Amino acid sequence: MRTKCTITNRLAELLHKKDPVLWSSPEEMICWPSIYDVMSWLRNEKNISIEPGACASGWYLEICKAGNVLKYDCSGGTYIKDLEGPNDAGRFDTFEQAAMAGIEYVLTKILK
Predict the structure, then answer these.
(1) How many domains does the chain fold into?
(2) 20 to 30 A Cα–Cα from 9, which one of 18, 49, 96, 97?
């Protein structure tokens, strides 16, 4: 069953290509992983942190190589990318939209 916070079919396919042992194919998935599950996997297994943040014009997104000491923020790591969103201010309208854009960017551009 998919909920608002679960990933899209496209992201499920990309995850399955990156790690078929851990991530089932979309057709075989009984319970779709949440955005938070995927962000945690990227942070803990691939050492990449996706960090959506709120501002007056929407949600912004930073992608960083997680640091050795702090695995949960960009302050201890290497900055990789700041993604622009689709709204007029170049931001994302929701946390989920920003997080999924970051996940897709990492799976397609960084973890080739």
Answers:
(1) 1
(2) 49
